């Protein structure tokens, strides 16, 4: 077990705690999900408020765009056509 401990310390990993994994020795190279997300996707937890603000911005823009293209724009087009038809 000392060799395994030395190996895990060298690669900065840990053993899986699954009881069904007796045949092979699963080694997890990341201790948290944050480490995996940052190393693979360059996503850090420190930016969560920034990312949430971007998501809310997209949601607000889509709500405004849906309102504009379904209610305001056709209504404005109808008013313009009626005003042009009178003259």
From TrEMBL:
Parts of the chain that traverse the membrane: 54-84
A cellular-component GO term for this protein: membrane
Domain CDR ABC transporter residue range list: 30-70
Pfam families linked: PDR_CDR (PF06422)
Keyword terms: Membrane, Transmembrane, Transmembrane helix, Transport
InterPro entries to which the protein is assigned, alphabetical: PDR_CDR_ABC
Name this polypeptide is given: CDR ABC transporter domain-containing protein
Organism in which the protein naturally occurs: Suillus discolor
């Amino acid at each position: 077990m000392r060799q395994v401990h030395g190996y895990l310390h060298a690669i900065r990993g840990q053993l899986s705690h699954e009881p069904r994994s007796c045949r092979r020795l699963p080694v997890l190279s990341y201790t948290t999900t944050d480490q995996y997300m940052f190393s693979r996707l360059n996503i850090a937890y420190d930016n969560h408020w920034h990312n949430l603000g971007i998501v809310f911005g997209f949601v607000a823009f889509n709500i405004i765009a849906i309102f504009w293209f379904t209610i305001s724009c056709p209504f404005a087009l109808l008013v313009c056509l009626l005003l042009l038809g009178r003259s």
